[in-house]
Design brief:
- The protein is α/β, with parallel strands linked by helices and 619 residues long.
- The protein has 16 helices and 26 strands.
- A hairpin with a 2-residue loop joins β19 and β20.
- α6 packs parallel to α7.
- GO terms for molecular function: hydrolase activity, acting on glycosyl bonds.
- InterPro entries: Cyc-maltodext_N (IPR015171), GH (IPR017853), GH13_cat_dom (IPR006047), Glyco_hydro_b (IPR013780), Ig-like_fold (IPR013783), Ig_E-set (IPR014756).
- Keywords: Glycosidase, Hydrolase, Signal.
- It comes from Flavobacterium flavipigmentatum.
Length: 619
C-alpha cells in the first residue's frame, strides 16, 4: 500500500512540475523587462508575448491598477497598461486566468531610479563628441567575437564582416579618448543585429532590449556608462526609430499587420525628404518617403500605430534609466511620421527636461534642416513643432568637404562658403545646439577628401572647434586615418590600429604611434583640450566679417572672454589690416595663440602663414 501511495505521490509531483514548466513557457517575452518607480508619466504599457496568451484574463497584485488590457489580431500578444502613480520600488505579480483559474503567473519589478535622474545633464556646446563604430574600434574581449546563437561569425579578413571590436575595447581606451579632449562618446548602435552579413554596423536590430553578445552584455553596457562617468565622460546612444532588422523576433511574428508599413509590392523610400515640407508635394510621394522601407533588410516601423509609438517611447526611456545615458543621436530621424516623432521626442524631454537629442536630418539647405529643430518658426507656419532639440549640420559639412581646396577665391567659392552658411543661422531656433562635423560613418573620410594633407586637416578641426554648435570627431581621423567611400562603406570604417592583438602599431599609446600619427594626434588633443577651457567658443556670440582675399575672420565672445579666429585659405603668406575688425577688438592690444602660446600685436596688422588658422585669445 505504501508503494502505491508513493507512486501516486510521485506522479502528482511530476504533473505539477510539468504544469509549472508549461506555465513558465507560456510567457516568452515581457517588455519592458522591468520599469522604474517615480516616473513623471505614471502610465506603463507592458507587452506580454507567448503562445495564445490573449485567451487569458490578466490581473495584478499589490492593489496595482490595471487601466487597460488590449489585444490585437495576433493571439500571442497581450498589452497590459498599469498605473504606477505613487508606487514605490517593489515586485508585483501578474496572474493569468482561464475559466477563473490561475494558469500561470509572472513577476514584474519596479526599480529605484538614480538620485536626480530626471534632472540629468546632457551634452551641449561645451562638449566634444567622439564618434565610434565599436566593431572597428578595439577588441577588448576576443572570446565574444562570435556567438553560436547569432548568424554572422567573426571574420576580420572580410572588409564588411564582424571584426570583433566590442564594449570592453571601448572601456579599455577611455583614457585615450579623454586625452584627446573629447567629453562625450557617441557609439553607433550596440543592440543585437542578427543579419547573416554586414551586421557589424548594427542598424538592423533584432532585439532592442538586448546588447549584441558580440559586443558584450547589457551589464557591460551599464559598466561602460559607469566607467565613463567616473572620468567625466558622457554616453550618447544611437537610437533607431525608423526601422528594425528583418530578423527582429517581432517581425517574425507581428503583433499586428500595421506594426510595420507594408505595400502590395515591396516599396523602398525614394529618400527625397524635401517632399515632407513641400506644399506642392503629392500624397503618393509623401507616403512613399515615410512608409517606404530604407532597404529590403530593414522593415519600416509604423509609428502611427499607437502600440509601436508607445513601445519605442518606453524602450528609449528604459535605456536612459537602465544605462544612465546622457543623450541620444537618432538615426534617419525624418524618415518616420513627423507627428509621431514629435510625440516621441516630447515624451522623452518631458521626463528629462535637460536631455539632448540630435536627429540625423540629412538634407542640404538650412530651411529644410531648421524646420526640424524644436520651436522652429518655419515649422510653426504649418503649426508643427518637432520637439527635437538638435539637428546635424549637413550644410556645413558640405562646405567643409571642398572649401579648403579652393585656393583662388571667387564670388561663391573658398571661405565665402562658410560665411554664407552662417548667414542663415537666423533660421535655427538654437544654432548653438547644432551638431557640427566634417565626416561620420556614412560620409567620405575628411583625410581622404584632402589627400592626407595635414595642413588642411588642421584647418578643418580648427573650424569645428571654434564655430557655434557641438563639434563631433570621427574615430581615427585624429591619427590621420582615412578611407575611400567609393570602395564601399567598409572603406571608411577601418579598424583602429592597436585595437587588436598583433596590430603593427598601437596608436592608442604615445609610444606606439608613428611620427605621422603623433603629428595628427598632438595637434587635435591640444586644440580640443584648449576648447574645454574657453566658454567663449561654447556659448559665446559670434560676429563674422565677409571674407576678403580668401581670408575669413570671426569672433566668439562673452562679457568675460573674446576669441578672434583667422583663416588664411591662400597658398601664400598674407597680411591683414586689423582696423576693419575694431568693432570686436578695439579694447584689446594683443592676442595669444591658443595653440602655440605666441603673442600677436593686433593693433594694426597680422601676418598669416599660407593655409593656416590663428585662434587668438584677446588680451
Amino acid at each position: 500500500m505504501r508503494l502505491q501511495t508513493n507512486h501516486f505521490f510521485n506522479k502528482l509531483i511530476l504533473l505539477i512540475l510539468l504544469f509549472s514548466a508549461s506555465a513558465k513557457a507560456q510567457i516568452q517575452k515581457v517588455e519592458p523587462p522591468f520599469w522604474y518607480a517615480g516616473m513623471k508619466n505614471p502610465e506603463l504599457q507592458i507587452m506580454f508575448y507567448g503562445k495564445n496568451i490573449a485567451q487569458y484574463e490578466a490581473s495584478v497584485s499589490n492593489n496595482v491598477i490595471i487601466k487597460n488590457v488590449e489585444k490585437t489580431e495576433n493571439p500571442n500578444y497581450l498589452f497590459v497598461t498599469i498605473d504606477t502613480q505613487n508606487l514605490k520600488a517593489s515586485e508585483m505579480v501578474f496572474s493569468f486566468k482561464s475559466k477563473n483559474k490561475v494558469a500561470f503567473t509572472q513577476k514584474y519589478s519596479l526599480k529605484e531610479r538614480k538620485t536626480n535622474s530626471a534632472e540629468r545633464k546632457s551634452y551641449d556646446a561645451s562638449d566634444v563628441i567622439y564618434l565610434i563604430m565599436p566593431d572597428r574600434f578595439a577588441n577588448g574581449n576576443p572570446k565574444n567575437d562570435s556567438d553560436a546563437s547569432l548568424a554572422e561569425k567573426g571574420n576580420r579578413a572580410l572588409p564588411g564582416g564582424r571584426h570583433g571590436g566590442d564594449i570592453e575595447g571601448m572601456i579599455k581606451n577611455l583614457d585615450y579618448i579623454a586625452s584627446l579632449g573629447a567629453t562625450t562618446i557617441w557609439s553607433t548602435p550596440l543592440c543585437e543585429d542578427n543579419d547573416k552579413e554586414y551586421s557589424y554596423h548594427t542598424y538592423g536590430q533584432s532585439d532592442v532590449y538586448k546588447i549584441d553578445s558580440r559586443y558584450g552584455t547589457n551589464e557591460d553596457y551599464v559598466r561602460l556608462s559607469a566607467e565613463m562617468h567616473k572620468k567625466d565622460l558622457k554616453l550618447v546612444m544611437d537610437y533607431v526609430t525608423n526601422h528594425w532588422g528583418i530578423t527582429h523576433w517581432m517581425i517574425k511574428d507581428l503583433p499586428t499587420k500595421s506594426w510595420i508599413n507594408q505595400f502590395e509590392n515591396y516599396t523602398q523610400t525614394h529618400h527625397r525628404r524635401e517632399v515632407l515640407t513641400d506644399i506642392h508635394a503629392s500624397k503618393l510621394d509623401q507616403e512613399v518617403c515615410v512608409d517606404g522601407w530604407f532597404v529590403p533588410s530593414m522593415p519600416d516601423l509604423n509609428l502611427r500605430n499607437p502600440f509601436v509609438a508607445k513601445y519605442l517611447t518606453q524602450n528609449a526611456i528604459w535605456w536612459i534609466e537602465y544605462a544612465d545615458l546622457d543623450g541620444f543621436r537618432v538615426d534617419t530621424y525624418n524618415y518616420s511620421d513627423a507627428n509621431a516623432m514629435a510625440n516621441w521626442a516630447k515624451s522623452i524631454t518631458n521626463e528629462y527636461p535637460n536631455f539632448n537629442i540630435v536627429g540625423e536630418i540629412w538634407m542640404h539647405n538650412q530651411a529644410n534642416l531648421a524646420y526640424w529643430q524644436k520651436d522652429s518658426k518655419i515649422g510653426a507656419i504649418e503649426n508643427y513643432n518637432s520637439n527635437l532639440p538638435s539637428v546635424m549640420d549637413f550644410t556645413l559639412q558640405d562646405q567643409i568637404g571642398s572649401a579648403f581646396n579652393e585656393d583662388n577665391a571667387t564670388w561663391d567659392n573658398g571661405m565665402i562658403k562658410f560665411y554664407n552658411n552662417f548667414t542663415l543661422d537666423y533660421l535655427y531656433p538654437n544654432p548653438n545646439n547644432i551638431l557640427v562635423f566634417a565626416e561620420n560613418h556614412d560620409t567620405n573620410r575628411i583625410n581622404d577628401v584632402y589627400k592626407y594633407d595635414f595642413t588642411k586637416y588642421k584647418l578643418v578641426m580648427t573650424l569645428l572647434a571654434t564655430v557655434r554648435g557641438i563639434p563631433q570627431v570621427y574615430y581615427g581621423s585624429e591619427i590621420g586615418m582615412g578611407g575611400d567611400k567609393s570602395k564601399g562603406d567598409a572603406g571608411i570604417r577601418q579598424d583602429f590600429p592597436g585595437g587588436w592583438n598583433g596590430d603593427k602599431n598601437n596608436a592608442f599609446t604615445k609610444e606606439g604611434r608613428t611620427a605621422e600619427q603623433s603629428q595628427y594626434f598632438d595637434f587635435t588633443a591640444k586644440l580640443f583640450n584648449w576648447r574645454k577651457t574657453n566658454e567663449a567658443v561654447h556659448f559665446g556670440k559670434m560676429t563674422h566679417y565677409i571674407p576678403e582675399n580668401n581670408i575669413y575672420v570671426y569672433f566668439r565672445y562673452t562679457d568675460a572672454k573674446t576669441v578672434m579666429v583667422v583663416f588664411n585659405n591662400n597658398s601664400t603668406e598674407q597680411t591683414i589690416k586689423t582696423n576693419r575688425f575694431k568693432e570686436n577688438c578695439k579694447n584689446f592690444k594683443s592676442g595669444k595663440d591658443a595653440l602655440t602660446g605666441k603673442t600677436f600685436d593686433i593693433a594694426s596688422e597680422i601676418k598669416l602663414e599660407s593655409k593656416s588658422a590663428l585662434v587668438l585669445e584677446l588680451e
